Amino acid sequence: MIVERPALEQRVLQALDAGRIPVLLGGCGTGRSSALLRLASLIGAGRAQYIDFSAAATTPERCLHSVLAASPEGPPAPMPAHARAAFDALLTYLDTASAPGNGPVTFLFDEILDIRTFENFPGLRHVQRELIERLTASPNGFVLASRFTARAHRLLRDADARFEVIHIPQFVGDDVRGLARQRQAAGTLTPAQASAVAALSGHRAASADILLAALLAQPAARRRPIDALATAMSPGGPLSSRCRESYEFRLHRARGYGALKAILGVLAEQDAITLTEIAQRLHRTPGSTKDYLSWLEDVDLVTMQRKRYVFDDPLLRLHIRLYGGATPPTPAFIAAEAAAFAERCIPQDVPTPEPVPTGSQSEQSGIIEID
Predict the structure, then answer these.
(1) Confidence (pTM)
(2) Which whole-number Å values give the CA distances from 213 to 10, 210, 229, 277, 302, in the listed order?
(3) Helix or strand or coil: residue 303?
(4) What is the DSSP-derived secondary structure letter of residue 99?
(5) What pLDDT digit, counting tens, does each position of 140-198 carry?
(6) CB neighbourhood size of 20 (10 A)
């Protein structure tokens, strides 16, 4: 799925033209990779190079080989034989690479913070800071992206003013209708249905795409976003699988795996509660509970709003409510939880979207659009 979001892409291109280094931040499934791939296409072959550090950041030597293998010149022989030398060669390449006609190259780094894995090798204790300092002085252009918002802000706290943080905007009804157009199904989707899909997805592009596919798979006369949510979140469903992937991925990047799962279970039972309330339910001291919560914030699983902790992605809360027990959920339980989730997500003063009448192709349905 490559999502076209012209306003976001234009903002990044304007930042590059002004000599800044855009930093795209957004959680799992928000569309960071899609944005980078679209930008690479817009900038043009030979003038842009996309690099996925979540795949390439293994050892410095293998990472260097992978990056150079994707360049027009290819990797030299012999390659550096040591971690420090390989990392230095990578920094040099980022400085000296050029486009046809000796113009600058724009590097698009997906999941840039994964370069942190190099810190396990001798002589590379501060690779993130070294990279940031080198990019600041480089004649080439760069776009950085990460799903770890808190960690990125901490890394860039004292960085040069060239870095411009851009948070991936929420996925809204108009974006869902754009996905429907890609599927050649825009005429069968009402504005209210599109906005409901965006709300039920937690305003994340990947989840919205899954929900839209589930919705469009229903007969036109019986299309209800709540039913699509229940179907997609059923055992083995595509949305439950994506939530599990995001949940496990972030937990494995944090410390205190078991205790953190327990806290997320507490927040799944009751959202928006205080540190003291969490500590009491967990039977731990406020001090240790605060540490656990800070580790969850570090990987953007939870966030604090007015001294109360909530899930950063509301769909993960639904996922844990459904799959946090010892037995799989029943279809009736999934339907009930999906309905309760929809009631929280969709404003109460807006009626739930009704199915499109059979044969209707008009988007001017008279149903109030949910914003």
Answers:
(1) 0.84
(2) 28, 5, 10, 39, 28
(3) strand
(4) B
(5) 999 999 999 999 999 999 888 899 999 999 999 999 999 999 888 877 889 999 999 99
(6) 19
